[in-house]
Amino acid sequence: MLKKIPFNRPYLIGTEIENIKVALDNNHLSGDGFFTNYCHNWLELNLICNKALLTHSCTAALEMSAMLANIQPGDEIIMPSFTFVSTANAFVLRGGVPVFIDIREDTCNMDENIIEDAITPRTKVILPVHYAGVSCEMDTINYIAKKYNIIVIEDAAQSLLSTYKNKKLGTIGDFGTFSFHETKNITSGEGGCLTINNSHFFERAEIIREKGTNRKKFFRGQVDKYSWVDIGSSFLPNELTSAFLSAQLNAAENITMLRRELWNKYHNALYEIEQLGFIRRPFIPEYCEHNGHIYYIILNSFEERTNLINFLSSCGISAAFHYVPLHDSQEGIKCSRTFGFLTNTVDISKRLLRLPMWIGADVFYVCENIKKFFKI
After folding, report:
1. Mean pLDDT along residues 293-307
2. Which end of the chain has fewer CB atoms within 10 angstroms, the N or the C?
3. Shared domain check, 355 and 238
4. Which residues of 6-42 are buried (b: 16+ CB within 10 A; e: fewer)?
5. 324: Cα separation from own chain's centroid
6. What is the rounded CA–CA span in Å between residue 66 and residue 110?
7. Phi, psi dihedrals of residue 324, rounded to the nearest 5°
8. Shared-domain flag, residues 141 and 205
């Protein structure tokens, strides 16, 4: 019988349902109940950040960050093209213009050496995306941002508990955004979080998250009624989602350890294939600690990647390519611009292949079939 290895399988702790039952017994199903506040406290303590606010998705967290950055029509946001559409969409919705720059060949992160030349008087935000839970070069990015008085928003969707020089990702810029989607290490099915590292934005973040009202102040007894005071939307997750997430967060360190172990198994097993020149394995800078979110290989050509995907599929293994560069998309052409040549972006997007990465995945079976493909 053919073995089946899906690309992703969510890892359940076993206490998620118990927490959901508690939330039901508490008769509080809307946002910001006991479990939501518990998650806020966990994130602030474990990420060492000033403020964390759960949202119903990472997309929502990015949209909140665009509002907090006061993006106006024509404002420019420097970001990689090699990212998920939400990274750009959140700013386009405010009239912002994504300015796509190339990625580094080694880490697949935005090339920090290009950023300064891409800055114009319209530049409002630099938006590093930490690909596969591996940090961008944040010292350089923050130095440039400070020099030109630009806001830094970290897209840390894939990066919970990853670090850069011992600092947790999502806490190094002005804002950080996280995802708890089903495909992420720590999940609530759908869900996200905005971290706010600049105290100047604390109060407005609460207002924007509460549909543009000062409802939080009312509940704290700071005003005798609440009203519409700013723009905003409904960004809160429901309490059942937070209850599920709280169980996952309690096991986050152990989940991260298990995923790193799985990542290392891939990395060791594929060493020989890399040495023979058939693939390239991920590169992790020595000052970064990743969280084992993605294990990818880079093939020598688009055709070879396609053939390997098909071969692995015939073996019951689901492997997937990743982003189609945004600058080449229909909407990207219409509402963004590029700076310089995006050579690495185009090249790597055609050759990168993600392998099944979930706790319990049969790494040996995957790697043995990759070896068969290359006739090793």
Report:
1. 98
2. N
3. no
4. eebebbebebbeebbeebeeeebeebbbbbbebbbeb
5. 16
6. 19
7. -90, 120
8. yes
Dihedral angle over CA of 327, 329, 331, 332, nearest 10: 0
pLDDT score recorded for residue 31: 87
Q: Do 246 and 257 reside in the same domain of the chain? A: no
Q: Measuring CA to CA, how many Å separate 95 from each of 70, 92, 98? A: 11, 5, 10
- Assess contact for 30 and 236: CB atoms under 8 A: yes
Is 172 within 8 Å of 150 (Cβ atoms)? no
> Does one domain contain both 256 and 240?
no
pLDDT top residue among 194 and 222: 194
Residue 224 has a pLDDT of: 75
Q: Spell out the residues 6+ positions from residue 363 whose beta carbon is closer than 8 angstroms to its own.
A: 262, 265, 266, 269
Give residue 1's pLDDT. Answer: 73
Q: Which residue has the tokens 């995006």?
A: 342
Per the confidence metrics, is the pTM higher than 0.85? Answer: yes
Q: Choose among 309, 303, 290, 301: nearest CA to 347.
A: 301
- pLDDT tens track for 339-351: 999 999 999 999 9
Same domain, 103 and 240: yes
- Tokens representing 101 are 């720059």
List, in order, residues 6 or more apart from 375 with CB less than 8 Å away.
none
The dihedral built from the CA positions of residue 140, 153, 79 and 59, taken in this order, carries a sign that is positive
CA distances from 346 to 45, 215, 223, 247, 340 (A): 39, 46, 53, 39, 13
Share of the chain above pLDDT 90, in %: 94
Residue 8 located in a structural domain: no
Token representation of residue 162: 């990853």
How would you label 171-208 residue by residue, b for 16+ Cβ within 10 Å and e otherwise? bbbbbbbbbbbebbbbbbebbbbbbbbeeebeebbbbb
Instruction: Give the number of residues written for the chain.
Output: 376
